[in-house]
Amino acid sequence: MLPFYAGFPLGMPLTPFTIFLFGKDARGKLSEPTVVFAESFAGAMYFERQIEVGIYREAFKKVQRATLDTRLSRDLIREVAREYDSDR
Length: 88
Prior knowledge:
Layout: E1 17-20, E2 35-40, E3 43-47, H1 50-66, H2 70-86
Antiparallel strand pairs: 1-2, 2-3
């Protein structure tokens, strides 16, 4: 969970993206290159070049470092749920 107080770890809002990692063949080589699917307001794109995939991998790592661990995420969700329930 990325709490509101974490702000924008990359300095700006991040559009949704998915990194597709494919398995290896019998010889240990990637069966397909890694691909990034990125969505935006105007449409979506696929990125296959290593430099572009690397940029998205780094973005994912930065956001992941700003997230809460499992216990803190659960605690925050419970706290918000209690606040919501008490307001009803």
